[in-house]
Structure formats: C-alpha cells, structure tokens
Design brief:
- The chain is of the alpha/beta class.
- The chain is about 50% helix and about 15% strand.
- The protein has one domain: D-Maltodextrin-Binding Protein, domain 2 (3-Layer(aba) Sandwich), CATH 3.40.190.170.
- Strands 1, 2, 3, 4, 5, 6, 7, 8, 9 and 10 form a 10-stranded mixed sheet that branches.
- β1, α2 and β2 form a beta-alpha-beta unit.
Amino acid sequence: MRTRFMTLLTGMLGLAALATMAAGASAEDRITLRIGTAGHQDEALGADIGDVLVPAIEKYSGGRIDVKVYYGGSLCSEQKCIEQVRLGQIDLGTVSSGNVGAFGTTFDIINLPYLFKNDKVASEILNGWLAKELSTRAESEMKMHVIALVPVGGFRQVVNTQREVKVPSDLHGLKIRVTKSPTEFNLVKAWDAVAVPYDWSALYEGLQSGVVQGMYLQDPFTAAGKFYEVVKYITRVSAAYSAHPIMMDLERYKKLPDWARTAIDKAGADLQQKGYGNDMAWQARAVKPMEGKVKVYTPTEAEMALWHKGAKQAWVAVRGTYDPKLARRILEQEGAHDLLADLETAKAL
C-alpha cells in the first residue's frame, strides 16, 4: 500500500511540476507592452504608433506581444512618459527632442536651429545614419533603448498674440513659451524675447491669460491645439526641426526574450522608414483649419540673416551639449557651407 501511495504521490508531483513549467513557458511566450504618448491618434505620432508600430510588433512576434497604447496624454504627457518608463510603470514612452533634454544631452543636437535645410534633407540624414548614431549614444548616456526616432510636425516657427514680427527685435519684451531644451531657451533669448519654460498642457490657458504671449512651435501643433483661436501672428523662421524618440528602459529591454527584442527592433526599423511619410501627410491635413485665421509673415532674405545671427548665438550658448563632429558632418552632407563657416568663426564648432 505504501509503495502504491508513493508511486501515486510521485506521479502527482511530476504532473504539478509539468503544469508549473507549462505555465511559466506560457507566461514567457506572451508579453504585454504598455505605451504612453502625448500624441493623438489623428496626429503623425499617433499614426506612427497605432498604424505602423503596433501592427508590426504583433506581426514580427507572431501575435505573442500584446500592445496597449495610451494616447493623447491620457496616461502621461511628454517628460512624464519617460519618467514612467524609467520607473517601470509603462514599457515604452514618447517625448519630443525638446523635452527629452531633462534626461540627457543625446538628442539636443536635433534642436539646433538651422541644422537641417528642410524636411526632406532631415529625413534623409536621420534615416541614413543619424538615428542609429543617436540610439547608440542614448544607450550609453541615458540607459534607454530607442525603438525609433521619428519626425513630428516639421520646423518650429515663431507664434505670438500681440503683433506682427518681421525681425528678432520685434520680439522685444514678449514672453515666448519654450520647451525644456536649453537650445530653445537660449535661442529665444538671443532673438530678444523673454523665454518662458511652460507646460504644454496649460499652454492654451496661458496664452489666453497673457502669462505667455507666444510660442516657438510647429504649424501642425498650432493648428491641432486650436491655438489659432488665441494667437494672431506666425513668423515663418523655420528654425529647429522636431523629432520624437520612442524609448524603452535599457534594462527592461535586455530582460525580454530574444524573440521579443527582435520583433520590437524590426517594428522600430519599419517605423523609422515610414515616419517621414506619415508626418508630411499629417502636416498637410493639420494646418487646414488654421488657414486664413492667423497672419503669416515670411521674412525677406535680409531679415532671415538677422534670425540666423541669433541662431549662431544660441549654438555658442549651448556649446558642450552637442557633439561638434556630428553637427559638422550633418552640415557638410547637406552642403550648408556658409552656415558652417559662420559657426566656425563663432567658435561653435
């Protein structure tokens, strides 16, 4: 009897062990990733995530990765998303190249005014080599793994509620909202305005109340946020380009199974290539509600020289936050020889 009991007990323990192993394997074979973003589903960043990244992750993982996306700041907004990624509260987060500066200087180079000639050149350089280079540096400096670095909204313009601005001196005394980027702060100061770091979520009310009187912002966001209801003037200075890294904590990434890391990286590569098209399409759609509701001024060549002068001051002010070799490589690749010479003279490079 005892022998039969022991045999039965051994068999039951064996089945229990197999069940436990099966449960463990099942848990490892299915993963849920949570993504927090300030981007809305009808904006370029939201489309990047919902229409490209999520389906690609599901495809490359064979359906073993479930992705839950929290859009429009419903879970976190800009800087907070990356804070939550670091705390392990979410798995992936997005942040603008302006606000990511709170976590390191890796992406500060993107904020440099007039670094890129136009959207097309910026996309070619980002997708050609720059995104990979910055991703490598982000792992080293910020301990973050970059899934993709995508353009969002094009170039920043000068927007205000008070008066038409043609040259930097016309900004004198105006309180202009900036992100947490030191480059933006110093650029707006060099343009003779008062630079005011101000939270994005409160910006509409801030413009209404006069706490801030303008902003340094891309046209699609001016339109999408309905800021045209409170601002009256846009000056098309087309200074700094805007890109958003989508990131995961490096340790969290390393702990994933090999197949999951491969799926995520393949999906990120797909997005890297498709982000430019998404952004250009969104820019064209987004600005339509704003047409005819604000006065837009395009500076003359002589006036643009004054905006460029302030830009050089900003480069000098933040020297040390960007790698001059990277900046030089970008300027040389796009043939910006005059700017390159001016920055060398100013000792910005």
